[in-house]
Amino acid sequence: MKHPESLLSLKGQVALITGASSGLGAHFAEVLAQAGAAVVLTARRKEKLNQLCTKLTDSGYKALAIAMDVTDAGSIQAALEQTDELLGPVTVLVNNAGVADPKRFHKVDQASWDYTMNTNLNGAWNVASQVSNRMLELKVSGSIVNIASILGIRVGFGDSAYAISKAGLIQMTKAMALELGRKGIRVNALCPGYFKTEINQGYFDSAKGQQYLAGILPQRLGKAHELDIPLLMLCSDAGSFINGIALPVDGGHLVGSL
């Protein structure tokens, strides 16, 4: 019988995190490195990636920073080839890159819609497609975690395009899990509630944002460390019999009374 702590270990794994230059992506990268994975930090902002990479390597962890644009298939291919050469094939993918452009549905224009969908849904598909195909070619088992949102499960005012993109990501997760599960690739979605990030910090620092938090079940924002064990469970052997789920981590926000 394995000790529970050993089940969460990612020793010997190569984990690629998209959107790792800041926010939850940077936090996830540190969590996976601390669990023993060699981490590949990817985002468009290479300067910030380099800072995080130096922090990790100075602490004794194995990390690699690669500039990558999830909306560019060639950029993804180049990043994966570099990873293969320097660390070996990716066995854990955390598909975290995401953007938001909050607007009511009737005010969403084509540019706003494309901006949101190209990263949150098309970008996630671009990366997951290439990573899973490489896993299949090399006959390696692995885990893919798509970072969705509770807004992919229920909607809120002013976030229609974002919610639709995350709902699509959850359905993509289920389709991938169904088709890849027998090939040794588990695919799950992690659905955070509200955590302070670059995307939303202005709102939650405002009086209106504080008023909103007072009215939801947890009455506060989540703390980044509260995502650590759910993420590690989905990435590691601790979640070896978990496939195709959308896991909310939201302090009970979704069960708030109607």
From TrEMBL:
Family annotation (InterPro entries): KR_dom, NAD(P)-bd_dom_sf, Sc_DH/Rdtase_CS, SDR_fam
Domain Ketoreductase stretches: 13-193
Gene3D superfamilies reported for this sequence: NAD(P)-binding Rossmann-like Domain
One Pfam match: adh_short
CDD domains for this protein: SDR_c (cd05233)
PROSITE patterns named among the record's database cross-references: ADH_SHORT
Similarity comment: family membership: Belongs to the short-chain dehydrogenases/reductases (SDR) family.
Entry protein name: 3-oxoacyl-ACP reductase
Source species: Lacimicrobium alkaliphilum
